[in-house]
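Intended use. Records like the one below are meant for learning the mapping from a protein sequence to its folded structure. Do not use them to infer anything beyond what is encoded.
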Amino acid sequence: MKLLIIEDEVELAGVLHRGLSKEGSTVTLATDGNTGIELACSVSFDFILLDINLPDRNGFEVCETLREAGVTTPIIMVTARDDVPDRIRGLKSGADDYLAKPFAFEELLARMDAVTRRIERPTVRAGHPDGTITVGDLHFDPRTMTLTRSGTPVQLTVKEMGVLRLLMEAPGSVISRSEILKAVWGIEDDPLTNIVEVYLSRLRRKLHALGPPLVENVRGFGYRLIA
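Structure written out for the chain above:
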């Protein structure tokens, strides 16, 4: 895998470079936004890790510039800025995910894997050019992180939204418990935790209060969103 890291914090850039290289990736480092844009537009990368606080232009501007230039490479923003408005702005600028510092290296790998699987998994979802997803009467807008059912807003937590988005991106397909754990929580399957069941129960309760059941438990295999 060819990776581009756009990060001016030397110590973190070094850690990421060493860690990702050990995972078998070829890593290129840019320490400012303009250099990052030039590299991303001239070289084909499989992934971009992008800091927000860069010396010449911020990561939001870099991400927007790359998307406007037609660069579709998956981008994960890696930053100390973890306020909700910043996360929303990052996603609206075209990022595929948002990871707050400090973070475990294993979580970064899990998020990269989750983004890759979302992109590669064949789906029949009703996606739109603006990034919104519509399945039946559910409509999700990642730019504002809002969900509606039949036009009625549904208030979800970040993790609930993560679980539902995973299901919406592959309606009708069974998503295993371990896949949900890894994609949303960044951890491997743990038979001693019932966190997935707890969040699916909350999610069902909120969605089913507004209409017929949508989330189905396929016993022994996982969960799916009824398309």
